[in-house]
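Standup notes
- HV: blocked on the assembly model, inputs below
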Amino acid sequence: MDFFPIFLNIRNKSCLVVGGGAVAERKIALLLKSAADVVLVSPELTHDLTTWRDMGRLNHQARGFQDEDINDRHLVIAATDNAEINRHIAELAHAKRIPVNVVDQPELCSFIVPSIIDRSPVVAAVSTGGASPVLARLIRSRLESLIPAGYGRLADLCNRFRQRVKDHFSKPEDRRLFWDRVLEGGVAERVFSGHDEEADQLMERLLADPRLDQEMGEVYLVGAGPGDPDLLTFRALRLMQQADVVVYDRLVAKPILEMTRHDAEHVYVGKERDKHAMRQEEINKLLARLAKQGKRVLRLKGGDPFIFGRGGEEIDTLAAEGVPFQVIPGITAAAGCATYSGIPLTHRDYAQSVTFVTGHLKDGSMNLNWDMLAQPNQTVVFYMGLVGLPVICRELQAHGVAGEMPIALIQQGTTHMQRVFTGTLENILETVERERPKPPTLIIVGHVVELQEKLAWFEAPPHSEQGATSPVDF
Ligand code: SAH
């Protein structure tokens, strides 16, 4: 290691920055975050630096560097655009044993400034020893996605309870086990979902009765998006990797399922059209029962849980039975399929609104407000509409939509099996007859479909239809 990693306390300590450009500004922002007393020497300032000076946040000397500037500083940053001046400042600082950083000249630095992930009081720092700031930033952004935004508040909670936990468990081993459970269990999740008060209550309960198996579990109702695993949210991925039980149905793509914990219990609950593996009420009860056994239950849903996903019904039961839960949005099929096929759902020239409806057939018909759906200047998206497509085409025309109205069918959107079929209300059924799209398929009706040919960007790889490496198994 070329550098010794430390975190320095510079609260109310006098720190000198020479230079008033963009780089100085970034360093000063960090110094101010750490509550340093900043003295800035520079004839000119950026807009933000001027604002901070006017707010009284830093002491600005509007002139060039003078040797005395270095006296009595705890830290020096040389950020002028003149390499000679920077070198001179560094030499003075070295002579006085003051830690000094020279921008872009690692050989002159006695310390370097890492890329940081700030979840104060938790701070993670990444350094490449000055070799590549860009690489450091890249690693930083990877870590950024792994460390939930709530870690700062979680650390505050640990701080609040630290002494009491210490008093409670005399053996360090027991203490460690207790904290492990807190940081990976319900308490941490309560904090991440913004329920700090509940988290505190749960800590109290755990301290009063540390038989940890009594702890109530939780249900994570997670939207898995339309199929491409890259479209998962950070939070979805984190919860997927921590759940003890995974309750999933047909619409969840296999590669996504494979991202859940491998040692988790997996429960398949349906549903194929008219062939429900488990009735909805049974699923609702199952979720509550598992959570009450203390398990962290992942209910994984295709798309978004609150859009034709029965998410509302599932958490209704949980709420009634006092089971904690959180709901994580996912990219709904309409958004995923539209973008991956190159069909903007709204467009100033074609559609001022978009409507999502279910095209599910009940007793051979669809109970929809066809007059509304036949209005011009809008896009209508039908979920679950493949079987009912003849009804959709017939009813729209019967309510005044022209037979030439463009329509698109997107099969298994966003996945390597995606196929897009376009046509008109008059002729799309012939295409379906010929091409036989496979479910799940989304239907988009509106003039925006005309843009598809021009705006399409995503290509499913050829031959994926043959399936040997097919990532999806609906
Ligand atoms: N909650 C889900 C929708 C469930 S209803 C969401 O927000 O996306 C199931 C219907 O969604 C399917 O019949 C189909 O119309 C649509 N759908 C889901 N995933 C799809 C995909 N990858 N490609 C095309 N349509 C999809």
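- HV (later): unblocked. Confidence is low (pLDDT under 50) at residues 466-474. The domain at 337-455 is CATH 3.30.950.10 (Methyltransferase, Cobalt-precorrin-4 Transmethylase; Domain 2).
- Next: hand off to the docking folks.
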